[in-house]
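Worked example 3 (structure in, sequence out).
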């Protein structure tokens, strides 16, 4: 059995995000039950961590070739045209992720310059936003690794 491609950093980020979401949500429920009040930070942190979890999980799925796609055309094509299709798929994905990296980075920079604060806790807004281009760049790296693997005929994790 061939080893599955790894995206360890993203797996750790996703795991930590999920654990922290579960812990702060549980703590919030317990405190609300006991005191009738709740922690103010839980919603703001939970939403942020859910975004991190989503991007990190998508990055792991990209690396393991686990994203949903319609493989009918790909399976029907001979080797040469199939390779062209893989490159076109990479170009489309890289374009979208590149735009997210660019505009997410621009937004984070503007939030830093404007010294915007989060509505709930008053933390610098860029602390939350800067993760968008970072995680999109990681996804772009994993997309590229996946495309190279597919072009070389290594389609690990492909259950389609």
């Amino acid at each position: 059995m061939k080893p599955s491609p790894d995206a360890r950093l993203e797996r750790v980020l996703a795991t930590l995000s999920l654990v922290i979401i579960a812990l702060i949500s549980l703590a919030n429920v317990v405190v609300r039950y006991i005191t009738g009040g709740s922690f103010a930070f839980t919603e703001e942190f939970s939403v942020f961590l859910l975004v991190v979890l989503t991007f990190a999980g998508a990055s792991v799925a990209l690396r393991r070739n686990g994203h949903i796609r319609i493989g009918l055309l790909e399976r029907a094509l001979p080797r040469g045209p199939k390779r062209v299709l893989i490159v076109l798929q990479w170009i489309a994905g890289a374009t979208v992720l590149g735009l997210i990296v660019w505009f997410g980075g621009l937004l984070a920079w503007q939030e830093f310059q404007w010294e915007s604060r989060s509505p709930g806790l008053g933390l610098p807004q860029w602390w939350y936003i800067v993760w968008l281009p970072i995680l999109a760049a990681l996804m772009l790296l994993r997309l590229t690794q996946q495309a190279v693997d597919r072009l070389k005929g290594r389609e690990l994790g492909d259950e389609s």
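Notes: The chain has one domain: 8-151. The chain has a mean pLDDT of 90.
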